[in-house]
Amino acid sequence: MSDISLPAASAQTKTRIPWIDVARGAAMIAIVLGHTLLEGDIHTYLFSFHVPLFFVLSGLVFHVRSGETFLEFLARKAKALLIPYFFFGLTVWLIFIFLGNVAASRLGLQLASDSPLDYLIKGLLYGNGRDGFLKFNEPLWFLPALFVAECALYGLNKLLDLIPKRGRMVAFAGFTAISLIIFWLFNGIQEQGVMPLPFSAECAVSLLPFMICGWWFGSYFKTRMQKTALPAEDTNSHQPAQDAEDSQPRNPSFTFALALAAFALIAGGWTLSLTNRVVDYKTSLYGDIGIFFAAAVLSIVGWLLICYLIYENPLLEYIGKNTMSILCIHKLPILACQIAPTPLKELLAAQNLVAGLAVTAFAIAVSLGVGYILQKIYPPLVGKPAKSRRTF
Predict the structure, then answer these.
(1) What is the pTM for the complete model shown?
(2) Best label site of 141, 174, 187, 254, fewest CB within 10 Å?
(3) Domain range holding 151?
């Protein structure tokens, strides 16, 4: 099979691209901060692009192993995405049974149901949080949605294998156009009264254009990325090789121009996002589609340029390599800060940025600490490949 996407690391050496880990780390910080500050311009802006950015990055590093069948691909993705989903889902659901009503009353929220089984069956097992049945850990909707999107991309990858190389650019454009039409059809699906789909499939197909664009970019720039990749100590099985910086020093004028362009793009994304409604991905509510796409694309390109210019940053790279534990855990420490009777609660309610950043740092630190322990116990719990047993 001709694999036109980013290739997997070789059997001998696994590799990563530092700036992609930096971008993943920055995107995760944006998600946590967006879940900490629940209103205001910063919240609106972060929600305009952070999830699409993750889908772009997932498409960028998407790969199908040589000779890999769909069932093998399915099993690999299930281990990487669904084991953490069900583990953290069940764990937090058990906590929710005892503390859910207390947290809801302190936050002034109305729960979707008084029955814990509704959250288990309609939320966790069904894999959709649109009707509030994943309220106990709402960020989890992302994992089944990503699982569905990557399965769809596998099919597109197989279809692309049947197309001559000269026609693949047209095929990419066609895939993108079709996915945009589907996105338009799914916009506001909740308001149209359409029932939620299993495994957040409506979210997956709505966000597929971003994943296809990342896949497209990765496919045509994979050669350069492969040449500059460095060995890495640890990588998820669903994250292939990533890039290391060119040995050639950068031209200062070009770097300055690139930074200027990045900030201009981010400023444009910020301005446009504030003219639209607050985006809600799990309910497929995007507001004005044109404004949403323009704001998201401007911000995504701008932040990717910034991350490329940063290139290497140990803290952001570490966060980027451990996004699974942060995604699945961060809501718990945030919730503790939001309901605890401390001055911090009042600052968060007032959408204070300094307090929001402090709680974001706290939530990420707690998530990384718990994730580190779980990885030592059983790596697949946090999306890492299981360590092979030594034979003697």
Answers:
(1) 0.88
(2) 254
(3) 15-382
